[in-house]
Design a protein that fits this description.
With 353 residues, this protein is α+β, with helices and mostly antiparallel strands. The protein folds into 2 domains: 123 residues, 3-Layer(aba) Sandwich (Creatine Amidinohydrolase, Chain A, domain 1), CATH 3.40.350; 224 residues, Creatinase/methionine aminopeptidase superfamily (Creatine Amidinohydrolase), CATH 3.90.230.10. Helices cover 35% and strands 24% of the residues. It starts with a helix and ends with a strand.
């Protein structure tokens, strides 16, 4: 498998004998194992999953080609492998190991432990065809659920009940869960980029921001649309049209060879040139996959060069305290000659009557 080959190349470069994987998502990415407990052991001659009795049959079904090691205690099982393979240095995921685990390993196991970061996450930046298909399916379910929700919106509903209905529609269509707790924010609360649904009632004059996504086979989608309750005033239209322009122009630039910082600057300059720069305080976008926030980022500081197979969001926003905010977000696949937008919901301002 190409992923394991790349890990073995990193092992050689690091001068380590074994890569020990603790992150549940990285474990799933490398092996296919979806259980909640286990370690992955990768050396030049061995690839093994260490787990307990609960998951033995699951590993057999999900992870063909992987050696299965039943554990009673991790220390005992690791020590057996260390002795059998004459291991001197173990590279481990320092972002996912607690201080207590590290103390136990150093006290009870003989090898040198070398903390590393990003080995698997860097591989995860470029999606395989199967990963893209799963994300595409999740995006389609989100689009279809929102299309069903829109005609039911009206003043008098609460953020919380609308959020519950949106989640129900996505789960009914086949999603296994939500990518994150959906953001349904109305009126002045729509100026909070990460507001959570509350008991505020939709009222005439409100912007309502919908930021949501769902999970299909472990992979996330993410989309944002903003609607207005009742006929929009000039201020509503000014802000909405500005965010839409910034979103469309930066979206056009997504393609191989561009950096996240270059694309972020397009949207940021449009918003700043129109006098609203101080009200756009987050990055333009992020990648996603097994997690809803992954690298690379579309931000002022990310110099990662986009490559085919990467998926990013493009989501500028303007947030005016005591009035409301607008964010528009699409999910975008970088292709060999440009990009493909995976979100299909229209972006014209929707007016809730």
């Amino acid at each position: 498998m190409e992923r394991i080959t790349k890990i073995r190349e990193r092992l050689q470069a690091e001068g380590a004998d074994v890569f020990l994987v603790s992150s549940p998502l990285n474990r799933r990415y490398l092996t296919g194992f979806t259980g909640s407990a286990g370690l992955v052991w990768i050396s030049n001659t061995r690839q093994a999953i260490l787990t307990d009795f609960r998951y033995l049959e699951q590993v057999k079904a999900e992870c063909p080609g992987w050696e299965l090691i039943r554990i009673e205690t991790y220390i005992e099982s690791l020590n057996n492998l260390i002795e059998a393979d004459k291991v001197q240095t173990i590279a481990f995921e320092k972002d996912y190991v607690t201080v207590k685990q590290m103390e136990d390993w150093n006290e009870k196991l003989p090898p040198k432990f070398s903390g590393v970061s990003g080995w698997v996450e860097e591989l995860r930046m470029i999606k395989s065809d199967d990963e893209i298909d799963n994300i595409r399916s999740a995006a389609r379910i989100a689009d279809e659920a929102f299309a069903q929700l829109l005609p039911t919106l009206r003043s008098g509903l609460t953020e919380r009940e609308v959020a519950l209905e949106l989640e129900f529609l996505m789960r009914k269509a086949g999603a296994s869960g939500m990518s994150f707790d959906p953001i349904i924010a109305s009126g002045p609360r729509s100026a909070l980029p990460h507001a959570r649904p509350g008991d505020r009632i939709f009222s005439v004059g409100d912007f309502v921001v919908f930021d949501f996504g769902c999970v299909v086979n472990g992979y996330c989608s993410d989309m944002t649309r903003t609607v207005v309750i009742g006929e929009p005033e000039e201020k509503h239209l000014t802000i909405y049209d500005l965010v839409l322009e910034a979103q469309m122009e930066s979206l056009k630039a997504v393609g191989p060879g561009k950096t996240g910082a270059e694309i972020d600057a397009i949207a940021r300059n449009i918003i700043s040139d129109n006098g609203y720069g101080e009200y756009f305080g987050h990055g333009l976008g992020h990648s996603l996959g097994l997690e809803v926030h992954e690298n690379p980022r579309l931000s002022k500081t990310d110099q990662t060069v986009l490559q085919p197979g990467m998926i990013v969001t493009v989501e500028p926003g303007v947030y005016l305290p005591d009035f409301g905010g607008v964010r528009i977000e699409d999910l975008v696949l970088v292709t060999e000659d440009g990009h493909e937008v995976l979100s299909s919901t229209f972006k014209e301002l929707y007016v809730v009557g």
